[in-house]
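Q: I'm writing up a methods section and want to include an example of the input and output format. Could you take the sequence below and give the corresponding predicted structure tokens, formatted cleanly so I can copy it straight into the document?
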Amino acid sequence: MRKANDKSLKDAIEQMLQVYKIKKRYEETGVVAHWPELVGKSVANRTKEIYIHDKKLFLRIESSVIKNELVLMRRQIIDKINEKAREILVEDVVFL
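A: Here is the clean output for your methods example:
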């Protein structure tokens, strides 16, 4: 029998992230962790640096060919990330 104030684990974690104001950072870390799923293993293997700062995704790609492809797919990458996060985490992609 559940008590009136019982919460699911998901709700409790969500509340903790909001209370400590780390939800956004948690979501940003999730993007980095799921980068291979978002762009594929071949692109992820050539990604040397990836981080998010001020709603900008910063990428360092070792292959100029892949970098050029990603420049052309910039909008699709942003849309995929924001769709997965269910909020606007990234507004621009910067290539280093």
